[in-house]
Amino acid sequence: MYLNSILKGLIVGSAMSLPLLLPKLSYAQPAQQLSSFSSLNYPDRYIRHQSFLIYIAPIVASDKLGREDATFRLIPGLAGRCRSFESVNYPGHFLRHQNYRLKLTKQTDDQLFKEDATFCIVPGLANSEAYSFESVNFPKHYIRHSNFELWLVKSDESRLFKQDATFFISRPLTMYPPSVPIDPGTNLIPAEPE
User: Fold this and answer.
1) How far are the Cα atoms of 10, 46, 111, 128 from residue 58, in angstroms, in the given order?
2) 40: exposed, middle or buried (C-beta count within 10 Å: 0-12, 13-18, 19+)?
3) How far apart are CA 134 and CA 137, in angstroms?
4) Which helix (H) or strand (E) holds 133?
5) Which CATH architecture has domain 2-18+36-165?
6) What are the pLDDT digits (tens) for 57-107?
7) Which of 84, 119, 120, 184 is most buried by a 10 A CB count?
8) Whole-model pTM?
9) Residue 23, Cβ neighbours under 10 Å: how many?
10) What does the domain layout of the chain look like in residue ranges?
11) Quick check: helix, strand or coil at residue 42?
């Protein structure tokens, strides 16, 4: 709850704010650099990749592959600010939007890839205790689920849009299966490296 009270109303994607306001979470601490993301309005469903497309899907403790597919390393944004989401079980592959569909794609060195794979973490559009992910190269476009698929969509300000574009950041499912209780509101966001 301490972390959530600090982050309430704060744009988390800002490189300036993270080191100053978050407890010191270090990239040297693996449990704190890895995260999983559950949907606000489908709390049993987590962001995961499957066949290199991104979905929200239920993950159970016995599904080792599902838990790995639903765990990402939050790193400093490839575009020079905000954050990028690197797959844990496909290192060097990042969550990115392409033709508005969210995909898992092998990193390339071109600027378009870097921008497509970088998102600012902002207070949740539907719940200030959660988070939304805004595209760096398409302002006001957020990661949103629709029919359990993840898309980059411009906000229409509707209640449903806000719910579909809001996620909880939680402990990594690779280390903490869904059957392990997690205190509501527990979020782990790594600080910028010093």
Assistant:
1) 29, 6, 34, 23
2) buried
3) 9
4) strand 131-135
5) Trefoil (2.80)
6) 999 999 999 999 999 999 999 999 999 999 999 999 999 999 999 999 999
7) 119
8) 0.76
9) 10
10) 2-18+36-165
11) coil
